[in-house]
Structure prediction request, 165 residues.
Amino acid sequence: MKYIESLIWGFIVALTALILEVFCEIIIKDILGFSAFTFQYTEFAFPLALLIIFLVATIEESLKFTIFWKRTLLYVTKKNLTLHGGLLGSGFALTELILFYYKNNHSLSMISIWQITVVFLTHIILGILLIYSLSKIPKNYIFIMLLFIIILHAGINIVILSFLR
Prediction:
């Protein structure tokens, strides 16, 4: 039952991240006067794109961190640590893919196998890294590990976006 809970927390974290990202989009649109997530690529837009990528990665990984720290670590044992991290990451990835599917008018033709694989592997690996860092790393180094995971997540997103361009 706790395995299903980890998967469901992945869904909840992804939807919460989406709400926060939309809220940030509204604030950015009010400040800059244009939609930060749908702007055209220009020299001015590149630093803004990096900022948005890091903002999104920070929101997503901070929410995962909070759920692991406040909820999941209460029932995780050393034996099933990897499984819970992977399940939370899978729930997150599955939510992203479902939202992408609905965004593209229920078309699977817009989603390639490599995109599905990259999304799942990214969130599963980051989930496992995050839960291991919370359970194994001394408390005074957790912020550094979270920062590393955020940078890794942002880097993966930059690589993905460069392939989609």
